[in-house]
Amino acid sequence: MDRRLFLATAATAVLTAGTARARAVSVGRVVEYPVFKSAHVDPRRVTVWLPPGYDTGSAPHAVLYMHDGQNLFDPDGAPFGEWGVDEVLSDLIAKGQVPQTLVVGVWNTAKRYIEYGPAALVEAVPEPTRSVLKAQARGPLESDGYLKFLVEELKPFIDQTYRTLPGREHTTLMGSSMGGLISLYGGLNYPEVYGAVGCVSTHWPLGSGEGSGVSRDQWRSDVLAGITAYLDKALPSPPRTRFYFDHGDQNLDSNYAPYQARVDAIFAAKGYRKGREFESLAFPGADHNEPSWNRRLTIPLKFLLNPAAPAGA
After folding, report:
1. Total structural domains in the chain?
2. Fewer CB near the last or first residue (10 Å), C or N of the chain?
3. pLDDT tens across 93-130, in order?
4. Is residue 17 part of a domain?
5. Domain range holding 99?
6. Residues 247 and 282: beta-carbon distance below 8 Å
7. What is the DSSP letter of 272?
8. Nearest to 151 by CA among 193, 104, 113, 187
């Protein structure tokens, strides 16, 4: 990004972030920005988690950006349970298994599907499934605007306000379900910003063909064709960014294995080595919810935040 644009954007972000509010969590400290305004998407709440020792130290921290921010730290505000990111990450930091890292939780809005649905991926899906996906969105997809918000407005504010390591090698983007899709999209669109991307229980089907007249087999075939066409074009080779994928096999996650197998094959064909530039894991018995993601959270965090450590170490 041009330096003048960066400075202007950072100054604007300071004005649009609103008044910060401190809030207690199990470990570390949380700062809330109740109304973070944007020129690209609707305003939303942003939560910043600072690990133990941040306030008394001077070292800069890596930054982990996570979607669905209301589900990360506080069970009272998480309708389906919380990830417990503060407890898990604090423990990993204390054990020296990951570097000192702060977390930026970006809350979703009523436009979650519209903002998290990767526009270019949807456009790559053949008809008739593409038209059904667009109809289900109930409005133009705003994923490109959401990514601009993260990169051009939120990140400059975070880097100006907190002690961060702003380089791509210390900046990670992560989410689950539709949040996994937008994380992948962000990593592919901004490889100069994100050095690592985490996609947990990625919602590869993009939507549902139920009641649309599109059969389940046709839906899967069309979406797989779209994923293939999109990644063939968008995934850089040789690898620049590290990617982590996983899924369970219960409920929504029971649909993901054939999609993930296709994605894994594309990554391998592009020169990504499993366990190094990318990881893809399956967790038998795991469901599509925050408690399941919490139980395996150490695995993606160690892979994404510490490039020297293979997944599962």
Report:
1. 1
2. C
3. 999 999 999 999 999 999 999 999 999 999 999 999 99
4. yes
5. 3-305
6. yes
7. P
8. 193
